[in-house]
Amino acid sequence: MVFPFRNILFPDDLVNAQAALKYATAFAQHGNGHVVSFNVQDAKTELASKIAQAAIDHDIDLITVTTRDRSRLTRAFGSSLAEDIIAESPCAVLAIRPPQRDFVNEQSEIQLRRVLLATNFRPSSVAATQLATQMANQLGAELHAVYVIGDYFEQISAMFPEGGLAALTRLRSYVQERMGHLSRGGAGTSTHIAEGRPYQEIVKLAETLDADLIVIGTAVHGSLFGNSQVLGSEIERVIRNAPCPVLCVPAARVVTPLPALVTQVVPQT
Asked: 3-class DSSP state for residue 160?
């Protein structure tokens, strides 16, 4: 994926559609491109796939969607339309949840000051890293990268003190090394390492930094209840709780719908 975006798809009947249109217009203006309006009228079960196909047909670089807060009950019965679009999209999707920190002014100019990249050094984050770096460099923004060591490693350590602690120690060393490479590889990149629940740490750091944009790779997996693609729960929670828009960058699909227990760190080159 290459920045600037030139062709932007705007689903025009979603909730708070004007917020999505504002960002679509700004990115199109910046890239000397255009906005393609998609009229949302069909059933939810078919719509996400139709939008994904429209993105392919029109060579779309970015889709802008708005999300809204949902109750725990409605979340239990499935993903939102915006989350379905993100999961199915072949291109980057900007998720906006008003009111949030805004980086587009009244003249439809993009004013990014700080970009927060959430990375895990897996293939799913490669495209997100490249896109975040391009955006920060071209727009003159600070680039911050964060890796969150999930709290499940602490649970493993509690169950298996020797093996769990050894794995956690290896992971901490590996993350520090990779973050060091990332910092040296990108001019002006600041790196952060946190431990805890991934979405909570990402959201908390975005608030602390006053980040204007979170960029995250969106690896998806097959639903346990059908053939549809669904986002991981941590990504969904980042989108629902972020203090700023979230740019979701697609990566290769995961074959299994269930998480695997990693017993050792395998460096990605």
From this structure: coil
CA 176 to chain centre: 22
How far is residue 126's CA from residue 261's CA, in Å, rounded to a whole number?
Answer: 22
Q: Quick one: tokens of 30?
A: 């910046």
For residue 239, give Cα distances in angstroms to 225, 236, 247, 258.
Answer: 23, 5, 9, 21
Long-range contacts of 37-42 (CB under 8 A, 24+ apart): 37/10, 37/12, 38/9, 38/10, 38/11, 38/12, 39/12, 39/13, 40/11, 40/12, 40/13, 40/14, 41/13
pTM recorded for the entire structure: 0.84
Q: What does the block give as tokens for 20? A: 């999505």
Residue from 108, 107, 89 nearest 38 by CA: 89
Contact 30, 67 (CB under 8 A): no
Structure tokens at 214: 């979170």
Whether the predicted pLDDT of 180 surpasses 50: yes
Q: Write out pLDDT tens, residues 48-96.
A: 889 999 999 999 999 999 987 654 434 433 457 888 899 899 999 999 9
Alpha helices in the chain (DSSP H): 17-30, 44-57, 72-76, 81-88, 126-139, 152-159, 161-185, 198-209, 233-241
**Cα–Cα dist 68/80, whole Å:** 9
Digit-coded pLDDT (tens) for 43-56: 555 778 899 999 99
What is the Cα–Cα distance from 59 to 90, expressed in whole angstroms?
10
Angle at 32 between CA 13 and CA 97, to 5 degrees: 35
